[in-house]
From TrEMBL, chain A:
Belongs to the amidase family. GatA subfamily. It is an enzyme of class 6 (ligase). It catalyses: L-glutamyl-tRNA(Gln) + L-glutamine + ATP + H2O = L-glutaminyl-tRNA(Gln) + L-glutamate + ADP + phosphate + H(+). The active site is at K66, S141, S165. The gene is gatA. This is Glutamyl-tRNA(Gln) amidotransferase subunit A. Its EC number is 6.3.5.7. It comes from the Bacteria. Residues 35-451 form the Amidase domain. It holds the Pfam family Amidase.
UniProtKB/TrEMBL annotation, chain B:
The gene is gatC. Its EC number is 6.3.5.-. It comes from the Bacteria. Allows the formation of correctly charged Asn-tRNA(Asn) or Gln-tRNA(Gln) through the transamidation of misacylated Asp-tRNA(Asn) or Glu-tRNA(Gln) in organisms which lack either or both of asparaginyl-tRNA or glutaminyl-tRNA synthetases. The reaction takes place in the presence of glutamine and ATP through an activated phospho-Asp-tRNA(Asn) or phospho-Glu-tRNA(Gln). Transmembrane segments: none annotated. This is Aspartyl/glutamyl-tRNA(Asn/Gln) amidotransferase subunit C. It catalyses: L-aspartyl-tRNA(Asn) + L-glutamine + ATP + H2O = L-asparaginyl-tRNA(Asn) + L-glutamate + ADP + phosphate + 2 H(+); L-glutamyl-tRNA(Gln) + L-glutamine + ATP + H2O = L-glutaminyl-tRNA(Gln) + L-glutamate + ADP + phosphate + H(+). Keywords: ATP-binding, Ligase, Nucleotide-binding, Protein biosynthesis. Heterotrimer of A, B and C subunits. Belongs to the GatC family.
Length: 473, 95
């Protein structure tokens, strides 16, 4: 079956003439159209009329795209009712780059509203179900992208990560998720949440698939002046061993607060890394326990500013009123969901007169300390490794009444986001029958090294993904 | 901690209408989150420079070459209301 192939394998099969790109697209389109996880908000009607050229590097392997990437003429609602029916007049650079490399748009994937959430329960279009257990969340905010890949209805997907929104859903659905170095990929056309943290990246079946997608996503873009691209071409990973590699395990992110089953799986992976030739030692990131606080000031502050544009004037929904002010406030009341309102309020408060220095100013200084902690760790270690998420996928509704407990899900992923460094989550075995994730973080721009190490560990772990299990059954 | 009056003030700044029920919920939830966040007040950060951006980018410039911009009709196509060639909004003043 063409849908059994990884993206790298499918691209090779199409280029070798063993598989037609149209057949591949149709097989996935049929699956995506029949999806019952609520992973998609839109699915393409048909294969593109113009087939990609035979030598296109991505050879027609279709890609599912998180809803918040603007795609010309295709609904792009960022999981929000305030953008219901919005058809952007232009396409995000990252989506255009994938299309130019031969990866057509399969569908748009469900997400937490404006990427704010860790469970995908904050979508204005309903929650996404975890294909491993439909009573549980897939993680978020790129929950639709993760469920689509894990459930086998997409070969791979594009997501975004602000504080863990690629890595955490990848961990909770047993797939690979990569957040590249901040600035590696253009943000042009990504509906913004927190601009100094937002970064696009792949959610894939394998580490090699992530490398292949990243190769075609990365690069500076004159339409995003913070994009710098990577310094070397991304190559497909080949490492089988970890000889000479030094792994640092931060005490602050691997002990208290990690579920026992997740910790056991993590310890097993560390042993495996040693068997592959790596040395594993504990290290310190003294300010990591404060990362979550800094993040939940900085990200809401940036969001309160970015989301000011949703005011019922230029696009999206409007609630009519007699005065301009009433039109603004009612449009925003009806259009935004509860979590988005909370973050707008939190951010506006943190930036308001009298509180700016105590909150925003301090959080920016904590950010400096966290970046310094990582820099010190990378003087001794090649990578910092942690569990990706402190727990396995939790049940739908379990944390919706307690925002703080929901925020604590991001505890292991937020520090890397604040430091702007690349981090990947790979499947790390099961705990109580549910996937756990292993996170590896590297210095900025060290993606090739990171992918190589993740590839070696992936092979040694031999995790059987859900799509592989279902094929066997 | 944040009280009801502050919630109403911040909501006005954010151009966000809140129902009575939402004001009550927001007051409790934000207080709880701020209680956690307030831990960063314990850190000594006096001599630490703030980070607003993690990757050093200096004077990112592009060549100043004119190119076509979004046509007016395309820019207006998604607007909830338009008048002639502009966005149509209610009057800033009541009446």
């Amino acid at each position: 079956m063409p849908t059994d192939l990884t993206a790298v394998q499918a691209a090779e099969a199409v280029r070798a003439g063993e598989l037609s790109a149209t057949e591949l697209f149709d097989a996935y389109r049929e699956r995506a159209a029949a999806d019952d996880l609520n992973a998609y908000t839109w699915v393409a009607d048909a294969a593109p009329t113009e087939a990609p050229p035979a030598d296109a590097p991505l050879a027609g392997v279709p890609v599912a795209i998180k809803d918040l990437f603007c795609t010309e003429g295709v609904p792009s609602q960022a999981g929000s009712r305030i953008l219901e029916g919005y058809l952007p007049p232009y396409t995000a650079t990252s989506v255009a780059r994938l299309a130019a490399a031969g990866a057509p748009l399969l569908g748009k994937t469900n997400q937490d509203e404006f990427a704010m959430g860790s469970s995908n329960e904050n979508s204005g279009y309903g929650p996404v179900l975890n294909p491993w257990d439909r009573t549980r969340v897939p993680g978020g905010s790129s929950g639709g992208s993760a469920a689509a890949v894990a459930g086998g209805s997409a070969p791979w997907a594009l997501g975004t990560d602000t504080g863990g929104s690629i890595r955490q859903p990848a961990a909770l659905t047993g797939i690979v998720g990569l957040k590249p170095t901040y600035g590696a990929i253009s943000r042009y056309g990504m509906i913004a949440f927190a601009s100094s943290l937002d970064q696009a990246g792949p959610l894939t079946r394998t580490v090699a698939d992530s490398a292949l997608m990243l190769r075609h996503l990365q690069g500076a873009d004159t339409r995003d002046m913070t994009s710098v691209g990577l310094r070397e071409e991304i190559v497909l990973p080949t490492a089988e061993r970890l000889d000479g590699i030094k792994l640092g395990v931060p005490e602050e992110l691997s002990g208290e607060g990690i579920e026992p089953g997740v910790r056991d799986a993590f310890e097993r992976s560390l042993q495996l890394a040693e068997e592959l030739g790596a040395t594993v030692e504990s290290c310190k990131l003294p300010h990591a326990p404060h990362a979550l606080s800094a993040y939940y000031i900085l990200a809401p502050a940036e969001c309160s500013s970015n989301l000011a544009r949703f005011d019922g004037v230029r696009y999206g929904q409007r609630v009519e009123a007699d005065t301009l002010m009433d039109m603004y406030t009612r449009t925003r009341h009806d259009g935004f969901g509860p979590e988005v309102k909370r973050r707008i309020m939190l951010g506006t408060y943190a930036l308001s007169s009298g509180y700016y220095d105590a909150y925003y100013g301090r959080a920016q200084r904590v950010r400096t300390k966290i970046a310094e902690d990582f820099a010190a760790a990378f003087e001794r270690f090649d990578f910092v490794v942690t569990p990706t998420s402190p727990s396995v996928a939790f049940e739908l509704g379990a944390k919706t009444d307690d925002p703080l407990s929901m925020y604590l899900n991001d505890f292991c992923t937020v520090p890397m986001s604040l430091a702007g460094i690349p981090a990947i989550s790979i499947p790390n075995g099961l705990s109580d029958g549910l996937p756990t994730g292993l996170q590896l973080a590297a210095p900025a721009f060290a993606e090739n090294k990171l992918l190589d190490a993740a590839h070696a560990l992936e092979a040694a772990l031999g995790f059987q993904r859900l799509d592989q299990r279902e094929t066997v059954a | 901690m944040i009280d009801r009056e502050q919630v109403l003030h911040v909501a006005r700044l954010a151009r966000l209408e809140l129902t009575e029920d939402e004001v009550e919920h927001m007051t409790g939830e934000l207080s709880k989150v701020l209680g956690h966040i307030d831990k960063i007040a314990e850190l000594d950060l006096d001599d630490v420079a703030p980070t607003s951006h993690v990757v050093t980018v200096e004077n990112a410039l592009r060549p100043d070459e004119p190119e076509p911009s979004l046509p007016r009709d395309v820019a207006l196509a998604s607007a909830p209301a338009v008048s002639d060639d502009g966005f149509l909004v209610p009057s800033p003043q009541a009446g």
